[in-house]
Amino acid sequence: MAIERSPRRTDGDHDRLVVGWFSFTCCEDSTILFTELLNDYLDEWKKVVEFRHIKALKTRNSLAGLDVAFVEGAISSGSQAEEARRIRENARYVVAIGACACTGKPSTSRNQFVSAQINERIRWYLSHFDYGPEVMRLDDVIEVDDMVRGCPMKVPVFLQTLNKYLDLFNVSQHA
Amino acid sequence: MRSRNIAIDVITKIEGSAGLEVVIEDDAVKDLRFMIRDYRRFFTTAVRGKRMVAVPSFLSRICGTCSVAHLFASLMAIESSQGIEVSEQTKTLRRLAYDGLMIRDHALHLYFFVLPDVLGVDSIFDISDDPQDPGHTLLHDSFEIKRLGTDITNAVIGAAIHAPLPTVGGSLRNPDQAKLRELIPRLDAVRPRVLRAIRTFFEWDAALVRNMDYLCLRNEARFDFLAGDVVNSNGRRISRTQFKDYLQYVQIPHSHGEGYRFSDTDEDYLVGALARLNLNRDVLHPRTRADAEPYLSALPLGLPLEQRVPQQPGAGDRGPAMRRRGERYPENSTHGRRRTRSKAGAGRHRNGGHRGSPRTPLPHGAG
Description:
Chain A is of the alpha/beta class. Chain A has one domain: Rossmann fold (3-Layer(aba) Sandwich), CATH 3.40.50.700. Helix content of chain A is 35%, strand content 22%. Chain A has helices at residues 29-48, 78-90, 98-103, 120-128, 155-168, and strands at 17-23, 49-54, 66-72, 75-77, 91-97, 131-136, 146-148. In chain A, the strands form two sheets. Chain A has a five-stranded parallel beta sheet, sandwiched between helices. A two-stranded antiparallel ribbon of chain A has the order 4-6. In chain A, helix 1 (29-48) links the parallel strand 1 (17-23) and strand 2 (49-54). The longest helix of chain A is centred in the first third of the chain and has 20 residues, at 29-48. The mean pLDDT of chain A is 92. Chain B is α+β, with helices and mostly antiparallel strands. Helix content of chain B is 34%, strand content 13%. Chain B has nine helices and eleven strands. In chain B, the strands form four sheets. Chain B has a four-stranded mixed beta sheet with strand order 8-7-6-11, covered by helices on one side. The longest helix of chain B is centred in the first third of the chain and has 32 residues, at 88-119. Chain B starts with a strand and ends in a 71-residue tail after the last helix. Classes of the chains: A alpha/beta, B alpha+beta. The interface between A and B is large, with 48 and 48 residues.
């Protein structure tokens, strides 16, 4: 569902789109694919995108004032759900990235386990840490504005989505 | 004498999610907890009941970084279980695809995760845009190297991540030979950039020297990621079929990751690139040995000096001389030729299992 939000910002740098990249429960294949895209696009994107939060590549990260949050992975716990909600509160738009965020699969496999499959080792992990009763896709937890499906994400769709937000925030004209 | 605690809630510039807690009392590390925080997905249970041919593609999703490794591991396990012997062509293509993974993945780790530290900046986004700046040159080297690694894997198995072509017994389609030939001049062209990277990291005044054992695969015929025996710096050599007998599962109370103690030693052990180079440098390609000789002569890195004796090729005779089992080195000793950046000491935690790798990989809940 599209969400009505003003793309006009009143704070910070208006020359670049402020982006965050986040990973929850998944194999991080889309993160790796994103780092591959940087081979071709880093020089161009540095002019129009500020990567404000991407812990795979940066130590100093901030959630404040994100224009777009790209979120990869399914939600396995209450603490992950809380973190996703915090991202939602700080981002004007949220884009689900990859199969686990968009559909939950294959990270939701354990939702289909019957009790006989939950052996002692699995039971220990489920009880010892804060695993939720079920793994959820991202839009089970927060509102999502766009989805880039695929395992890993489909590159042309990701590029189209990024360009859409560059246009929406009138950033492209600064490039 | 000082006491303090260090807590890193989120370790950055790695793949996966992890934290670290260190307790220091009287200037000594008393406790260290490395916490893998990737929620488990229990693939080994989820995979049961799936059709055999669907298993490798499913298990590839254990890790997007090293999906090729999980893909090939499952293929080889299934083939072994069914008594399927693959052709030499399949073995060669798998080696080639794996080499592509290693080229891309090592470059990702070294340039995207480590290079910012070498340059004293936070991230690759902070590296200078000035083409004359050495950091700019190195970063753009990485683009070429990573792209080439990815293209090799693409050409051989159809994709660098979750490749569609490998299947039980072989490949669904042979690679386009014209595409393979196109890779050869690119490999030659990128070689000086790779050597520049080796020199850069060699000259970086930092090193990790730990009292620990190293564990890797060794093939006497070549530097290999897929075939051979498991060897460690204790001198132990075991065949692939025996490997499971030497691993003991360890539940780590503070970590989602499973630990495995290698039963041959009481020590932590390190797998990955450094272990392979320490224990296999004599079987590197002759051209690699020649071009990288000034740097390879520093190996084995991270091993105490007493262990640094020349390796002897040949089955059962590959390891450096070992200290006696259980013997420890003084906590403050720095055995390396270069300055110690991080030392294992009395406070090393004893949860077993596999540290390190080309890019500090973190398991994604495979178990």
